[in-house]
Amino acid sequence: MRVSIASLALLALADNVSANLHSLAVAAGKKYFGTATDNNELADSSYTAITKDPKYFGQITPANGQKWDYTESRQGVFQYSYADVVPRFAKTNGQLVRCHTLLYRSQTPTWVTSGSWSKDQMTAVIKTHIENLVGHYKGQCYSWDVVNEAVDDEGQYRETVFYKVLGLDHITLAFNTAHAVDPEAKLYYNDYNIENPNPKQKKTVELVKYLQAAKAPLHGVGLQGHFIVGSMPSQADLETVANEFAGLGVDVAYTELDVKFTKLPYTGEGLQEQADAYAAVVKACLNVDACVGWTIWDWTDKYSWVPNTFPGQGGACLFDSNLKPKPAYDAVVAALEAAVKKSASTQSASTPTATATTDVSLKPTSTVVSTSVAESAQSTGAAPVTNTTATETASATSSDVIAPVTTAARGGEVSGVYGSLPVPTQTAVSVSPTPISPCERKRFRRMKKREAMAARKASA
């Protein structure tokens, strides 16, 4: 009788879940749960202790360092000392990198935005920038946000300097150039307020179709996901939009997720609303196969971008300014845990226990099933993510054994600046052999005998 080791692993994990966001996301069938970060934050050791743990965050996005202002502030002069900090941090800790971003209406130097360019000149400026930047990080980026926010809030193309000179050709140029330099990187169009049905989202669908018709190598659409407590799209709308993009044959990802309060201080009721909002986004992605994962736009209010951009607003992250988890964190964990258990239950129910054609011989084996994304990371040239959960089958000495699961104890907890968080320990699941009962053995033999008799009658 064949036993699904993958099913056993999922069942064991479902009974032994630790609140480690990336580990749970991968066990639920997604590629990553990640966070954005920035250089100055990495000097905070308490913050870094969580940020660098690949069981919490299997993917890192540099929030600012790779933007044009930081990498080519003067024409033709490229600087990477600042830009390299976050990718190097992620590589050291075995985390994927979503590189961000190549063409953007903001944080672009004035020598670009105020220049008077011919089409040939603008083409050369874009190609030079992208070839140098993507070339510098070749093999290090799981994906690139190639073009960021090219559609305005009314659903029209933004009148950027790139668009004024080249029209939509600047977007196809950017994708083609990036792909030519690093053909292994996933290439995304990234924008905000396209997570629910509206004119901007419809224009983005139109843009995706245009790029596909132009044979541009577009692999994914990034839904930034900057939401507001009290103005949240329904989960049904989130799924509708994600499915619409997925139906075009591209990946989907939530790339800059946060849910802000427009009035502070927030209340307990508001925190629950925020938790429900985060859970809806997580569940929507879980329900869409082409949705590969989530990136939160930093994980603590201490380093959120919101207060500096929108004075008087904030509280947008999963953790508060003291690095303590909020109800939103618990809601995300609960949604991921439920998905892991559902997946385990489905696999277990679909695994045959015994049929007339079942192979009863179990060969001695020593198999490890891992929920890490190490292999996929290696295939993209990124550093592998550390294994998070493993299931081992003990070597069998007889063909008459079935391997049941025995689970290891949960990890402990640590309190202090992190609040009450599970210690990020590796969860192991061991499998020991158990003999098949004599009755079971006789039943299988009877089935085999009936099968043989049926075969003889058929050939007579």
TrEMBL record:
PROSITE patterns: GH10_2
GO BP terms: xylan catabolic process
Gene Ontology CC: one annotated term: extracellular region
Start and end residues of each GH10 domain: 18-335
Catalytic activity: Endohydrolysis of (1->4)-beta-D-xylosidic linkages in xylans
Domain of life: Eukaryota
Class in the EC hierarchy, top level: hydrolase
Ranges of Low complexity composition bias in the record: 382-396
Pathway(s): Glycan degradation; xylan degradation
Family: Belongs to the glycosyl hydrolase 10 (cellulase F) family.
UniProt protein name: Beta-xylanase
